[in-house]
Amino acid sequence: MFQKPEHIKAKEREEEEQARKTEEGVQLRKKQGEDTATGEQVWYSRRVEDGCQIHWAIITHGKKYELRLPNGVRAREKVPEDQRTNTFEPPREYEDRIVPWSLKEEANRLRTLNLTRPTKGQTQDYTICQIGWTALAGEEVDAKWKAARKTIEANALGFDDCLALLRDFADIIKKPEGCALDYAWFAETLEIPSHRLHEITPEKAVRSFQRMLQSGGGLGLAGAGAGAGIVYGAYEAGEMMESMGRNGNMGVPAAAVDGTCGAAWCCSSGCWDWSCCELCVCLPCAGGGAC
Predict the structure, then answer these.
(1) Could you tell me where the Basic and acidic residues compositional bias lies (predicted)?
(2) Which of 115, 258, 264, 276 counts the most CB atoms within 10 A of its CB?
(3) Is 116 exposed, middle or buried (0-12, 13-18, 19+ CB in 10 A)?
(4) How many whole angstroms separate alpha carbon 281 and alpha carbon 110?
(5) Which residues, 6 or more positions from 81, have their beta carbon under 8 angstroms from its beta carbon?
(6) Which residues pair with 29 in a beta bridge?
(7) What are 191-223's pLDDT values in tens digits?
(8) Residues of the chain with pLDDT > 90: what percent?
(9) 0.85 exceeded by the pTM?
């Protein structure tokens, strides 16, 4: 009778353990996404395209507290001599705003972008994840945002200004009890300089995401994220997914929950191969009910 070589058995045991840890991470985030008793949920949205930060947004109390490029990605024009800096990036100016917004609307925007944009590019990332809960009322959160903005005297915000504002505003989450599993990843994204955004690739993002789930949180990991339940808007690049499948890497799992479907890579719970994946944002419904 044929016996598997010991190294293959060891590899299978390792993959089974990774799958178990990943499923635990999925279920923990699903539970977080259904928890409305701890406080008002706080979600984080981050979009990077071709090495350019398009926006950061905090979603809570039915509003989006956003820092964004007003006109999206700047064309790759030649930077005038008087605007050149020592960094790899041309200067960019961001605007801040507060608008009525919901988590579902953010997921729908992700879906629309993935359906309408070309499926090319290796540094595209659109991630939505839960970072915690706040005990503050909506008016208090508004005041915190305005106070954080007021500390920056410039009329137009630069990249570093945005990071400083978000670090200040993150105080709406009481630490550590108000932090969700992916708060640490959120904090890490606020330490990444603009010229390093070009280093985000689909392969690195997927592997970091897997490690994040398997560790039960984002501690010490620099990746491109995950979310409760799970919302993981990542890469449209089908070529990357095929490559990952050929190389035998595990797929990104998503909990089997009621919710809406958008366009991101989601995989069946308990399945650890890209063949079980489809383009779908798995978004848990508020309060854990059906949508």
Answers:
(1) 1-34
(2) 264
(3) exposed
(4) 9
(5) none
(6) none
(7) 989 888 877 765 665 566 666 666 655 432 223
(8) 30
(9) no
